[in-house]
Amino acid sequence: MSRPVAIVGIGLTRFGERWESSLRNLITEAGLAALQDCKVSGEEIDELYVGSMSPGQFTNQELVAPLVLDSAGLADTHIPTTRVEGAGASGGLALRQAYLSIASGHADVAIAGGVEKMTDVPEKDVTRILGAASDQEWEAFIGATDPALHALIARRHMEKYGTSREQLGLVAVKNHKHGSLNPNAQFQKEVSLETVLQSPLISDPLRVFDTAPASDGAAAVVLAALDVAESYTDRPIRVSGSGQGSDYVSLAARQTLTSFAATKHAAERAFAQAKAQPKDVDVVEIHDSYTINEILGIEDLGFCKPGAGGVLTETGATAIGGDLPVNPSGGLKARGHPIGATGIAQVAELVSQLRGQAGSRQVRGAKRGLALNTGGTGVVSVVHILEAV
Amino acid sequence: MSRPVAIVGIGLTRFGERWESSLRNLITEAGLAALQDCKVSGEEIDELYVGSMSPGQFTNQELVAPLVLDSAGLADTHIPTTRVEGAGASGGLALRQAYLSIASGHADVAIAGGVEKMTDVPEKDVTRILGAASDQEWEAFIGATDPALHALIARRHMEKYGTSREQLGLVAVKNHKHGSLNPNAQFQKEVSLETVLQSPLISDPLRVFDTAPASDGAAAVVLAALDVAESYTDRPIRVSGSGQGSDYVSLAARQTLTSFAATKHAAERAFAQAKAQPKDVDVVEIHDSYTINEILGIEDLGFCKPGAGGVLTETGATAIGGDLPVNPSGGLKARGHPIGATGIAQVAELVSQLRGQAGSRQVRGAKRGLALNTGGTGVVSVVHILEAV
User: Fold this and answer.
1) Where does the pLDDT of residue B2 fall: very low under 50, low under 70, confident under 90, or very high at 90 and above?
2) Three-state SS string across B139-152, please?
3) Around A205, how many Cα atoms within 13 Å sit in the side-chain half-sphere?
4) Domain range for residue B44?
5) What SS3 state is found at A174?
6) How far apart are the first and last CA of chain B?
């Protein structure tokens, strides 16, 4: 039923405070870069999907998907353009819809982009807008911010499993080290564990260096049916699994705080489709919007036992050179987190790794990669598994 | 390649100022009504799509798709939930993604909902938020509001084709008459042409009664593969065509103001897929966010020659009882226009008509219906063709 699909082109902007670039500029830059990365001409694209969390609240611009087509000079194609939203998972959802459009035989070539322009609003508005991913009536109404909700998760994980404050901090230290090797990263600078542990407290136990920054940026990937992919690139990267799951929006309704059921369901579907297991994965990108989320991700994806994510981090296994390199791009923490762009940027990093083009942050011999993109407090999760053909 | 798909259940809330109901309440009410309308249990749903234009700006709630699943008591299914956005076309896009998920064989049963909660913000904010569907840098920045942009279109149509102010007004008169027969409509009251023509001027030549109201409301439809549809309903309604098109976002970039290329492309695809022509259609729902848009829709869909839509309206052909009944539901003008809900509500109306359950507004002998849902100034258009099985 399902036709094999490959990623044939990737494009990224530099992430960070991009005051010189508008929402339109950013996504157009990424989209055109993705097209230049392969031999697909704009007229060959059958469908366009864009993931963006809150372009309306950040810039008052909705209808972002046709805007991208327009700005890329491709409006005359009049192709279907659709924006998808799942808060932090918006990019991953866009990729999945583009993937499905080809897997189903409906399209031969599709483009999936992601973008967010976050730094044109005051900082207090950023916190409020991020809070739109929580339950307005049951969480935001009583004053629970996005960091506060993640602090509850972190505290419970520490209580239940003995995860230490230092282990959380080591996630940030590792990802900053990786980010220092990534020329597109927002923070290309190493930090010490001491710096993380002495950074300002945001919501106990989480500190500034436990959180991803607000960023401007965009990313795009071009997908094609595998049977035509070789006409567009020498190194097609197959999407061998695509899974998506969801959960209760408010934390209070769930059975546990220390595991995201949405991630488990998404991973189960993606692994089954890819006919693979966690041990078969060589490189991973995980949605570390907070340090605790990387630890939960490692566990929920099945890379270690529940509760063992902190210890695994401490051993160095998740660093480049370790057994399970996680976030070689620098992750959300160091690469930056323009919300809608993140899910696409994760997959673009995997493509670079599987092509063997990741330069000084290359994971040696990487043949299979996995990306986990989540929205809200694990409310929506998307898992993609990629393989070198 | 493409598996036949049917709509097996529909659900609608009353549209209007629903101050007693939150965003969550509205979409849950519609979703549960759609499930009650057929024999699908919540656990049988494979995918959920929700269309909503600006829940963030109207209510600060993003992540609306998982919220619906959660509120309906179905979070334990952990199924994929995705919000899609295309301004006024958001509902139609949600339907199309749900349709594609089944047509591709990826899902057997899917639900598509649409919702907007517009009346909790001050009126001036409604105008600004609607303006998020225009190009922020090239239109909104210079002060062009959504009504102003549509006024330009109307004025040009009048100049080019001789469409009269009265013909525009007759669209509203007809739709209010139809709405008076719809118990879910926001305005269940007839209006005279004089009332329309003497209503306050908004943007010359458009007056208050040329525009759809701001509304709260939601709609949902349950879709299933045709081969299993008969186990869920006695009267499956087949989705025989689904087309989507796009255009330049700003009016200034287009070759003409008097025709929406996005609609033409969407219609061409939908008609080709349905192996049908305009003359085969018995009942139509058109996105009359402004009266001029119904006239453009009639023309772009091929129901008459370019420029002849005003005259066709004047003859009464587009009223219930005429040759081509348009908007028997009352349209956006009288049924109301909770933005994301509109595209789904249009299709729910067609299902009622094709089932022969439309009561006093029934179009006799209707076998094939068409819905046109548009976003922005015809930036995104979605056309669905439905047929009684």
Assistant:
1) confident
2) CHHHCCCHHHHHHH
3) 18
4) 5-122+215-237
5) helix
6) 20
Residues B349 and A365: their CA atoms lie apart, in Å, by 57
Q: Which two tokens stand for residue B249?
A: 């976002």
SS3 A55: helix
Residues counted in chain A: 389
Nearest CA in chain B to A101: B100
Contact A65 B54 (CB under 8 A): no
Residue A329 tokens, joined: 């791009």
Do B44 and B109 belong together in one domain? yes
What share of residues in chain B are helix, strand, coil (percent, to 5)? Answer: 45, 20, 35
Same domain, B102 and B245: no
* Cβ atoms B194, B201 nearer than 8 A: no
The dihedral over CA atoms of B58, B60, B65, B67, expressed in degrees to the nearest 10, equals -120
| pLDDT at A6 exceeding the cut of 90 | yes
What values do phi and psi take at A201, rounded to 5? -70, 130
User: Residue A249 burial (CB < 10 Å; 0-12/13-18/19+)?
Assistant: buried
pLDDT band at residue A2, thresholds of 50, 70 and 90? confident
* pLDDT of the residue at A164: 98
A162 in any annotated domain: yes
Residues A116 and A157 both lie in one domain: no
**Same structural domain for residues B151 and B219?**
no
- Tell me the CA distances in angstroms from A314 to A173, A232, A330, one per residue in order: 11, 42, 17
Residue of A nearest to B63 (CA): A86
Phi, psi dihedral angles at B203 (to 5 degrees): -155, 110
Nearest Cα residue in chain B from A57: B57
- CA B234, CA B224: separation in Å to the nearest integer? 13
CB B182 within 8 A of CB B188: yes
DSSP H/E element including A294: helix A291-300
B205 cis-preceded (ω within 30 degrees of 0): yes
Cα of A215 to nearest chain B Cα, Å: 19
Number of domains in chain A: 2
Question: What is the predicted ipTM?
Answer: 0.96
Q: Would you say A222 and A111 are in contact if contact means Cβ atoms under 8 Å apart?
A: yes
Count the alpha carbons within 13 Å of B131 in the hemisphere toward its beta carbon: 20
The rounded distance, in Å, linking the Cα atoms of A196 and A190 is: 11
Q: How many residues make up chain B in this entry?
A: 389
- For residues B29 and A204, what is the distance between their CA atoms, to the nearest angstrom? 39
B201 backbone dihedrals φ, ψ, rounded to 5°: -70, 130
B115 neighbourhood in chain A, CB within 8 Å:
none
DSSP string, B29-66: HHHHHHHHTSS--GGG--EEEEE-S-HHHHHS---HHH
**In this predicted model, what pLDDT tens digit does every residue of B225-247 receive, in sequence order?**
999 999 999 999 999 999 999 99
Statement to judge: residues A182 and A313 lie in one domain:
yes
With cut-offs at 50, 70 and 90, classify the pLDDT of residue B9. Answer: very high
**The pLDDT of residue A1:** 53
- Statement: residue A328 has pLDDT above 60: yes
Contact check, Cβ <8 Å, A1/B104: yes
**Rounded mean pLDDT of chain B?**
97
To the nearest whole angstrom, how far is the Cα of B274 from the nearest Cα of chain A? 15
Mean pLDDT of A205-209: 98
Measured in degrees and rounded to the nearest 5, phi and psi for residue B374 equal -125, 155
pTM over 0.90: yes
- Please classify residue A162 by burial: count the beta carbons closer than 10 Å to its beta carbon, then call 0-12 exposed, 13-18 middle and 19+ buried: exposed
Contacts of B62 in chain A (CB under 8 A): 53-54, 85, 87, 132-133
| CA–CA distance, B155 with A300 (Å, rounded to integer) | 59
What span, in angstroms and rounded, lies between the C-alpha atoms of A185 and A139?
Answer: 32
Contacts of A83 in chain B (CB under 8 A): 84-86
Quick check: is A350 in a domain? yes
* pLDDT value of residue A82: 98
